[in-house]
Every structure is written in C-alpha cells, then in structure tokens.
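Checklist before submission:
- one chain only
- standard amino acids only
- sequence pasted in full

Submission:
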Amino acid sequence: MSGEVQSLTRGLAILEALTEFDVDGASLADIVSRTGLSPSTVHRLLATFVEGDYVLRGKDRNSYVLGHRIISVAGSVQLRTAHLRVLARPHLEEIAEQSGETANLVALDGRTSVYIDQAEGTRVLRMSIRVGSTFPANTSASAKAILAFQKSDDALRLIFDERRARRYTRRTIIDPDTFRADLKSTRDRGFAIEREEVEEGVSCIAAPILGPNAVAIAAISVPGPTTRILSPTPERLGALVMDHAARISRALQTRAPTKPAGARAKAENTGRTKE
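Returned file contents:
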C-alpha cells in the first residue's frame, strides 16, 4: 500500500471514529483506542483535518469534533438521495407496520452497503442498525439485490478484486463465482436472501429499487433474527418487500411520487370529519 493511500485510509478511520462521539467530542486517547493507530499518527492527521476545518478542537482544546466542512459533505450525500428517501419513506413505514420488523433503505457504496433511511419495527429484538451504518457488500442482502440488477460486473469486481473478502461466519460468501450464482438466484426470485452471512442467527431479505434505466440504484431490506425473517419461508417477507420496492421503482421511472395503500387510507381518514 502506498504512503498516500495508507494516510487516506488512516484519516478515514479517524473521521469514522469521531462520528461515534457526541458534541463533547473525543480525546486523542479515545481516537487512538478506537482506531488502533499510534498517538503520533493520530495527532498528525488531526492537525491536517483541523487546518482544513474538517475537524474542530473542543473548548478545552483537548477534544475533537467533526467540523462544518465534513458535515457539509455528508449533507450533500443526503441531498443527492433526498428524492429517493421521500418516495421510499411511506413504504418503509408500511413494511414496518405490517411485518413488525425494521425496514431499511440501502445504497451500495463501493464495497459497502450504506443505510440511508429506516423505519423501526415493533417486534422485540430489533436489529441495532442506524442510518449511516455500513456492512461489507459480500455479506449484504441489499448489495445482492442491487448487484443482481446491474448492466455490468464492474461493481461486483470491485468487491472481490485486490483483496480477499473477509469471512464473518461459516456462511459468508468469499468466492466470486459462488456470489455470482447467488445473484442469479436473486434475479430469478426477484429478491435477495442473506442467511447468517455476517452474524450467526441474523438473516435479511432485500428487494431492488430500479431507476429509469431498470438498473438497481438502491434496495429495501428487512433484517432480523433468522427464525423470524426466513420462517416459515423467505417468500413471506420477500413478497412484501418486493411489492413496495416495485412501487418505488415505478414512481422513480415516472417521476411521480406514490403512496402505499395504507398511507393513502390513513390520509383519507384523517381528512374526514366525524358525523
């Protein structure tokens, strides 16, 4: 790894560590502990970030918080996905209401799946995933759903090129040919299944959201305990998630926002007056 790439990787690790702290910020020791980097490396990179206003010093000068420039960059990502999130939000809420499970809107960013919106379910043992969380693409039902509906293998090659995919459980797929076979199954059934590939006892169902060119740009996912997500069959949740993903896809392709039936009924009932 070149020195420039190594510095970039270390710098990103520091920024990610800072997202885990509140407004009081993190001390140098906190960041060293979270990243595993040496104090001198952390101090040097923090000085660069402070100079560029990507990181700010706390009032006591001994702590660090994310600065306005990095926040504005994150905000631009939110703006780019704003239309999609508006379209998807009522569908996420209805999935959560009907299934009791947490529903997520997920995008693919290189080798990782990124959670960009979420509607929490009511079932106990909900998954502790928040907006902004990421997962390795080779372990993600959402990544499978997105990759299965692409025009080329470029994104897939990125996931498996250069370095060996990490194994998290005995079911983690680390072989690209096996992963391609899984993508074919995803295309055939219309939704993706992740069977305990990142954590034992946890599985996920995801369906693709297709843009104007019928290429997947995001996915809706429903993760949770395997006994609930895949029982009695994966098709139970798969059909629900596919239906809502297809509605969002049609709205994107026509550029006309739609609401799910349940949301429309609620709006109509809200507008009525008691007789």
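Reviewer check: The chain is about 50% helix and 20% strand.
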